[in-house]
Amino acid sequence: MKYEVFARLNPGDETIHVGRVEADSDTLAKSYARTTFDEESWDYMAVVRREHVVEVTGEHAAPSPEVDA
Question: How far apart are CA 19 and CA 50, in angstroms?
Fold first, then answer.
């Protein structure tokens, strides 16, 4: 599975996309992210399965709901 990795350096900072990892499970993805992106002392790091990312713009963006005027 493919995972997107997000992190922040300090509490209150914005969380940024720092890269991607591939793993067979969520547990492995966390471990891979921690070791792959260990060049910083991150305050927070998260992995999100690529299939769970909902695009707002772009080719694969989720359609907007129809709104009655």
Answer: 11
